[in-house]
Design brief:
alpha+beta
Length: 692
Amino acid sequence: MTLFKLSLRNARRQALDYLVYFVTVALTAALMYAFNGLVFSEEIMTLSSLMASIPIVVIFASIAVICILGWLVSYTTGFMLSRRSRELGTYILIGLENAQVARLFFLENLAAGGAALALGLVSGGLVYQVLRAVVLSMFDKTYTFSFTFSLRAIGLTFVYFLFIYLSAQFRIRRRIRKMKIYDLIYFERQNEKEVIEKSKSRRVIFSVSIVLGILGTVLLMLGNLLSGLIGAACVILFLYGFFLSFSSGVPAWFDRHLTQKYSRQNLLVYRSLTARLATMGVTMATISLLFAAVLMTLGSGMTIGTLLRNRAAQSACFDLHITCPEERMPDYLDCIEANDISVTDSLRYPVYIDESAEMSGYFEKEENLGYSNDCDLFLRYSDYAALRAMLGFPEAALEPGTYIIHCPPYLGTLASRYGRPVTLGGTQLAPGPIYTEMLSNGLFGSNGEEYFLVVPDEALDGSPIWRSAYTAITSEPLTESQCNALFDIQDNLGKLETDTADNMDDVELDSADGMDDPELDSADSMDDPELDSADSMDDLELDSVNIKAWIENEAAASSAIFVFPLYYLALVLTMTAAAILTVRQLSEARRYRHQFRLLGKLGMDRREMERALRLQFSIYYAMPAVPPLLIGVPFILGLGGLVEPGIMVGASHPMVITGITLGLFLLIYFIYILLAYGSMKRNVLDIADFRR
């Protein structure tokens, strides 16, 4: 048999023996191709000008995936070498040279990798169609199936895989060429050395690691860059310190509790656990670190996606909503007419201001929103009723002598406890009903931040006007060119900058004059404080232009750019870590089979064997997953708490996002566990009669 044929035979056997690893590599290749397909898709790039940033983000994410997959390939290849070291040593004994054996091992791993890549590219076309359908639906575009391959995406994926496999295989090849026959034959018996041997050091490091884990989790929840970096370092030290000290401490604990050691199947589980921890301490810590990264990455992606989606829903109530000073409104109206924006219903109305800010102070004190308005905003009831009718909301009743509070749902209960009258122009109004529909009154809305008050029309006669507002419903979404035309007016601050410069000159002149006659200047300022206040408000507040089509496209593009790569990383991290655990577990099938055959001859029945096997599986797969859960859950909850109020509510509550994150992670993890358990049960328990 030639060396090439032997390599192919071994590659086929390797694919069967390490099927989980082979499938994981193929799925990663499929994901690589799918995301590379997004980068090179002209259809996706033309959805929004913001999508021009997606190639950079995907490339950075792919670099991380290359490192992760490279570690999987390198680790599994080294593990295969240790498991097949006797076979390779035998090849040398029968006359092959080290270089030939190294070439044999190199070719069979390269063949297996090539087969995984080919399968990944074929299945990647389907994954790309799924991603394409999701992206198009986010932009409210119609999806039609068109199965095509991108040669540039194939080429880039091939380059990634070539780098991963060649770098891993050349290292192993050099290692084999330098190994002696004795080293190869006994290489399988080499285990990970116990790093911490002394009991006292073990206890100290275990205690310190627990403290670092708590501290790191708290720092990660603070939400700023410096504390996040320090927290990440503490978490890494915690995981490695915990597993290295824990793996050394299990035998000592059982030795001090002999009754626990010898009860039921504990001795069998104890021996399996100590063997695992003695040989996989560092590996368990690394896998646990990957799982923590999965939960934080997936949770961050879901939180960011929810934030973008809910902010867009709050701001994009109307197809077009503009607020600006009254003198600037004609510019926008002329632009709407000049660009043939198809308006089917519209309303132009004033937004009034009351600088007493009594309700703003109440909300700030009771809710601690983190920001405060310097004034309360008011709408006339007739304008409010027209706005509700434009969106199809039920009619809002307003009794004479009362006012309406309109606020987000999360402030509804607090608003109902306000119970204070409002005085406008000498007229006192009693509290009336409360409505909580979104009416462009979110944090980035145009009808004020969070809330506004609705009063009878006559109550606002003579009240100061804060802004002029224009709301429109269109028959078709605004095009990008129409949006840009409106934004050009918003950004046209040349006149404002000139006025500001003139005002600065006037201020300097007034300051000089004030030195001559400070009493006169003081008197002038006292004459018209409302005018000065209004001018300061105009200088500080810029025009607000909210366009539903633009906001939704921007949210969709931001999700595609930032959220999708996070899901990409989380999926690859989960599959990589679970694959390493499963490969290590399935490789012990022969030892387990011998162990359980002996136990069967000693009188253990099959039910007890299944219980012992399930217990071993549970402990083995739970060990690297429990610490990340204790870190990831508080992190996701803390991340959701950093978002402004009113966004993460209902189905978007941080608790719900945390539950979905855990569900997705555990779903993928349990698939690997079930595959491993089914295979192990067939190869270990479903054999000939144990008692023979």
